[in-house]
Structure formats: C-alpha cells, structure tokens
Amino acid sequence: MAHHNTISHDPQKENFTFGGGLKKMSIIFIILGIIGMVWAYFGHTENHHSRFWSNFLLNTYYFNGIAISAVFLVAAHSIGYGGWQTILKRVFESFGYFVFITVIFFLIIVIGMWLDWHSLYHHWTHAPETDTIVGDKKAFLNKNMFSFIVIFFSALWMFGVVLMRRHSLNEDNAKDPIKHNQTAKYKSAAYIVIFGVTTSIFSWVAIMSLDPHWYSTLFGWYNFASYMCAFLSFAILIVTYLKYKGHLVNVTESHLHNLSLFLFGFSVFYTYLWFSQFMLIWYGNIPEDTMYFVKRFNVPLFKVLFFVTFIINFIFPFLFFLRRNAKRNFWIMNIAAVILIFGHYLDFYLMVMPEPNAISEHASHDDHHASLNNVLSASAKIENEKTVLDSASNDAVKVSTDVVVDHKDHSHEAASSHSKHGNSTTLASFGIIEIFIFLGFIGLFIYTVMTVLSKNRIVPPTSNPFFKESLNHNY
Questions:
Q1: What is the mean pLDDT of each run of 10 residues along the chain (475 residues)?
Q2: How many separate domains does the chain show?
Q3: How far is Cα 349 from Cα 59, in angstroms, rounded to an integer?
Q4: Domain range holding 299?
C-alpha cells in the first residue's frame, strides 16, 4: 500500500453509514444469541439455571473489558503523545459505548443475586457460619458491597467514555485546537486512574470471588492483558472493514502494523502473567492455592481448554506476528484477530464456568468445603502460634512442629479429596448454546459500535495538532 501524503476531504469517506451485509449479520448474530439464552435458561434448570447465568456473566464481563480497554488505549496515547493513532481514535472511542449495554446486564446479575435467581456467588452469599475463610472476607464479599461496586464502577466507566468521546467530537469546532488538545490530557489522565483501579477491583469481585477461597495477586493484570488482546483483535477487524468499504482512506499499512505490534506485545505480556500465575502456585504447592488448578485439571473439558488457550493465545500469535510482513498482511491479521477473539473468550470461560456449574458445590457439600477451609485455617493459626512456643522447651517446640506438619498433611489430603469429590460432576459444557450466546454478544457489540460510528465523522479534523503526524506515519 502506498504511503499517503495528501489528505482526503471527501465527506463520503469521512462519514460512515451502517447498513448492508454487516448490519444483517449482526442482527442474525443477536437473534442466535437470544435463542441460545432462552435455550440455556429453559433447557438447563439445574443449579438455579447455572448454564444460563454463567454464560451471561462470562460474555458481559468479557465485552465490558473490551469496551473500556479501547478508551484506555486512546487515553494512554493522548498522555504519551502517541500521534499515530489520531486518525483511528474515533473508531476506538466508539467501542466504549458498549458499557451502556453491559451496565444493564450487570444490574440484572445484581438483582438476580438479591432475589436468589442464580448461584454465581453462592459460595459467599450462602456460606455456612463454619466457613472461616469466607467469614474473614465478609466485609468485602457481601451483597451490599457487590451492588455498590457494580453501580459505582459502571457509572465511572460511562462517565469516562462520554467525557472522552464528547471532548473528541468538540474538537471539530474548537477555536484553539492546541489548547483543546492539552485539556484532553487531563481528562485522559483521570480516565487512566479510573480504569486502573476499577478494572482490578472489579475482576476480584465479579470473577475471582466465584471461588472465594482462592486468590491471585496477578489476577487484575491477567484480566487486563486478556481483554486488551481481544480489543486489539476487534480493532483490526473493524478498521480493515472500514478500509475495505472505502473509509479511513488515510490509514496505511503502518497504522495496521502498529495495531498488530500492540497485539503481539500484549499476547506476550498475557503469556508472562499466565505462566507466572500457574508456575508460582504450582511451585508453592499451597493447598488453598493449587485447588484452583486442580479443579480445572480434574474435569477433562477444562483440562483440554487450559492448554488450548495457551496454544491459541500465545504460540499462535507469536508464530503469526513474529515476521514483519505478517503484521502488514490484511488477510493474516484478520485471521489471527478472529482466532484470538475466540481464544481469549475461552480464557474467561475457564475463569467463570467451573464454580457455578459444579453440582456438588451447591447441592450437598457446602459443609465439606467449609471443613476443608477450617483445616487450612487451623493449620495457619498453629503456625502463627509456633512463634510463641519458641521460647519453651525443645520438646514443646517439637510437639508443635509435629502438629503443624500433621495439619498440613491433612490439608493436602482434604484439598485432594475435595477436588476429586467436588468436581467429579459438572454442568459446564461447551456446545451450541455457548457458541450462540457468544455470537449474540458479538452481534450486539458490532451493532452498537457501528451505530455510534455512524452518528458522527469517523476521523478527527485536520486541525488536530497530531493529525499530520498520524497522516505521515510510516513504520
């Protein structure tokens, strides 16, 4: 593709009309999604319709992350003087408006929690009094806090998205473009702070708390890396589609090369976090930590998908995007983007599905779960008390140590027994229902993004201080 040195002023190419085959496809996908949701709800009524609700949470969370990550990228480049993305930024900003859809879905989940419609957060909303680990987290894991976080964070995301978008559109008539651009940096800085704090905390509450007896200090970063890869994949698909339709005429191979480079970089970053989380927990071999992976390895479907996601989300993009030419080939980029969107969906599938769909977890083994954690808690307490006994006789210290070791042995045995017994049967599956619901969210996402794009010019004015830099970008 030849490098552009001229600026297109053709209004037909600066304004986008949403229609034709893409609109029909998105509507068909939405219909398939509705069919999948109805099928999941009425066809699978076990565990408070767990298959319906777990798919609902999975897709809502996944696409919410994609939406807010898009605006984050614009904000980060605004602060970092990254002018290359100026021509593309309004496309990215339109992604953010999907939060107005996901907030409705999150509110449905909140209402369902209060009315006991689902068992997504059963482990801490209905935890027995003997569950000391959940009891220690009650100040954070409770219905009031969950409701507040969902509502407050959603409000912040919507406010940030609208603030960034309106500021971008107002530059069309800005009298002082340079001053207007400087103001954008303050708003971008505020959004980055909001994004960083809210996404981490929300990942703990919405996803990690599905199993309140496990935690990872890398979880927020891990989620961020995953839905950044998904956003960049969608960005590549939509930008190349607009190019194909004759829009974004000033976008060159260099701009798409940058998007592919970011996708490659975040795929490596994602793998670093994926491996770090797994390796450290495996090496530490602490029962309350390793349970997370044991549960997934004891179910054949989850075990297969665990390694499939690694292949799709790291090995595949690493081999695809390692060569420079691959980052500038539209066909390779689009194929890789489609596969990675699905790959990171599977990543969140593994995070969400095991707990809500584990039959024994909600049927008759809550006491077993609680007793396991009491053993772990007792072991921890004895270890703390060991320091007090250091000043006693050697015999007393030896007895204390023996007790700790005995408790640890029981902890490992209990964890193993719990994992085998608690997850021998699961309602989780991967079939037409999951595919239909996922396609439904894709259709709704595309429909929302393209509708927002069609409302205004899809490129900023030439008066933007960074427009010329973006126009002449040559990687």
A1: 48 74 95 96 86 95 96 92 88 95 96 92 86 88 94 95 89 82 88 94 94 89 94 95 89 89 92 88 80 87 91 85 78 90 95 83 45 45 43 40 42 40 65 96 96 90 84 79
A2: 1
A3: 9
A4: 23-358+426-471
371 part of a folded domain? no
Q: Give the rounded distance of the alpha carbon of 361 from its chain centre.
A: 25
Q: Is residue 69 part of a domain?
A: yes
Domain membership of residue 396 (yes or no) is: no
Q: What is the pTM of this model?
A: 0.84
Residue 374 lies in a domain: no
In terms of C-beta density within 10 A (0-12 exposed, 13-18 middle, 19 or more buried), how is residue 122 classed?
Answer: buried
Query: For residues 124 and 141, is the Cβ–Cβ distance under 8 A?
Result: yes
Which residue in this structure is represented by tokens 């995953």? Answer: 226
pLDDT digits over 54-111, tens only?
Answer: 999 999 999 999 999 999 999 999 998 888 888 999 999 999 999 999 999 999 999 9
